[in-house]
Design a protein that fits this description.
The chain has 279 residues and is an alpha/beta fold. It contains 8 helices and 14 strands. A 6-stranded mixed beta sheet has the order 8-7-6-9-11-10. Strands 2-1-12-13-14 form a 5-stranded parallel beta sheet. A 3-stranded antiparallel beta sheet has the order 3-4-5, covered by helices on one side. A hairpin with an 8-residue loop joins β10 and β11. α1 packs parallel to α8.
């Protein structure tokens, strides 16, 4: 039997839980497996207590279908690292932040000038597009383009950059200075060789903050879960940020608490302990 979560890892007594925000991959589920029954039960337990549960993910809209199938009563999802708020129940985009066409040309040109081997993928509100030589590690329905000008008329909400390395942190350190001021760079896996670019000023934390304002939930009432660097702003912003046991060290370092790993139902175990303590 797994031991209970230590009381000193729970939020302080004066913490009033008003909303739970959670990353998906590496946090709610592992390697595209289904979300565990324990985690779904914990999510429903939050909802039954009147506490909104908001997934906050780097996934595009088209990769949310498995989540909607398992938890169809979820409401709004912050996806694409904050660029889009999507409503699962109505299958509609509530809000979107896009990268302007001129900015898109500017950042791709700047990256290509410094790294001619760079290849790009683009997420839009109508699907994905990839450079002809872009290597996708997961099967995806994406249209091949030969030039960024072919994206005219599409709202680009995320750009993925690939160089000749699988070290995402090293890539981030190379790309970030090239897009500073025009995009927000992050990464969601340490060794998939991808840097993710969001519109300038857009992060998971920024869009979650706006959503909480809409729902009337104070920052101090938000509990957030995550595991990767693109979760750092969210966990730092939340009233109580919780890192997964499988999180990178940089994420654990800024978190208020660390729960078990994703394959040990870390989110479910922590939520159940918090909800039990509220009784």
């Amino acid at each position: 039997m797994t031991p209970p979560i230590s009381i000193d890892r729970l939020p302080p007594d004066d913490f009033s839980l008003g909303l739970v925000a959670s990353d998906i991959d590496g946090t709610l589920l592992l390697d595209w497996q289904p979300i565990s029954t324990a985690t779904i039960d914990a999510i429903h337990r939050c909802q039954d207590a009147g506490i909104p549960f908001v997934p906050v993910t780097g996934r595009p809209i088209r990769w949310l279908a498995p989540i909607a199938e398992q938890i169809p009563d979820l409401g709004r999802v912050v996806c694409l690292n904050g660029a889009v708020v999507y409503d699962i129940a109505s299958d509609s985009v509530v809000e979107a932040h896009s990268i302007e066409t001129d900015t898109l040309s500017e950042i791709t040109s700047a990256i290509m000038a410094a790294h001619p081997e760079a290849r790009f993928a683009y997420e839009t509100l109508t699907g994905g597009f990839i450079d002809r030589e872009f290597v996708a590690h997961r099967p995806r329905e994406a249209r091949i383009i030969d030039d960024v000008s072919q994206l005219h008329g599409h709202e680009v909400v995320k750009v993925l950059v690939r160089l000749d390395t699988s070290d995402s942190q090293a890539m981030h350190d190379l790309v970030d200075p090239l897009v500073e001021g025009t995009c927000h760079a992050s990464f969601s896996e340490p060794d998939n060789g991808l840097v993710e670019l969001a519109p300038a000023g857009i992060t998971k934390a920024k869009t979650l903050s706006d959503l909480c304002d809409h729902l009337g939930v104070a920052r101090s009432q938000v509990m957030a879960f995550g595991d990767m660097p693109n979760d750092i702003e969210m966990l730092s912003w939340a009233g109580h940020g919780v890192a997964m046991g499988n999180a990178l060290g940089s994420v654990k370092a800024i978190a208020a608490a660390v729960t078990e790993e994703v394959d040990e139902d870390g989110v479910a175990r922590y939520l159940d302990a918090v909800l039990d303590a509220r009784r």
